């Protein structure tokens, strides 16, 4: 029952994200809105981390399965991208490093802010 409750909380935020996508005229996916809303709810304490942590850990552990379909799609379109694959790989590596740096800097900011607040 605990896992069903946690899953339902996550589904509520997925639904709210889809509603936001429908009503807000910006080119942002509903899943991004849902993640942002869940983040805000966790940050403000509206949703407790314990309410979603087990199911979120499970989603994280099976996340690799979500990459199977895009990998098959790349195999399908290989004839169209075979001439530029090295540019795509370079772009993916650059995007990975930019994401890693931004994530690290954001985590440092919040950790430092948390230390300052505790003093």
Description of the structure:
It contains six helices and no strands. The protein is mainly alpha-helical. The protein folds into two domains: 1-61, no CATH class; 68-119. Helix 1 (2-23) crosses helix 2 (30-44) and helix 1 crosses helix 3 (53-61).
Average pLDDT works out at 91
Provide the number of structural domains.
2
Sheet bearing the most strands, described? none
Strand pairing plus helix content: what structural class? Answer: mainly alpha
General shape: extended
Proportion of residues in helical segments: over 70%
Q: What proportion strand?
A: under 5%
Total count of strands: 0
Order of helices and strands: HHHHHH
The span between the termini is: 40 Å
How many helix segments?
A: 6
Task: Give the radius of gyration.
Answer: 19 Å
Residue runs with pLDDT of under 50 for 5 or more positions: none
Offer a quick outline of the entry.
The protein is an all-alpha fold and 119 residues long.
Give the secondary structure arrangement, pairings included.
Elements: H1 2-23, H2 30-44, H3 53-61, H4 68-76, H5 78-81, H6 85-118
Short key terms for the protein model shown above:
single chain, 119 residues, mainly alpha, 2 domains, extended
């Amino acid at each position: 029952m605990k896992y069903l409750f946690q899953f339902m909380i996550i589904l509520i935020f997925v639904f709210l994200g889809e509603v936001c996508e429908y009503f807000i005229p910006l080119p942002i996916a509903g899943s991004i809105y849902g993640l942002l809303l869940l983040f805000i709810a966790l940050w403000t304490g509206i949703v407790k981390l314990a309410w979603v942590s087990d199911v979120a850990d499970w989603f994280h552990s099976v996340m690799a399965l979500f990459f199977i379909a895009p990998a098959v799609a790349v195999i399908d379109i290989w004839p169209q991208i075979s001439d530029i694959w090295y540019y795509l790989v370079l772009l993916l590596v650059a995007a990975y490093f930019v994401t890693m740096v931004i994530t690290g800097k954001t985590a440092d900011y919040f950790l430092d802010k948390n230390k300052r607040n505790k003093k």
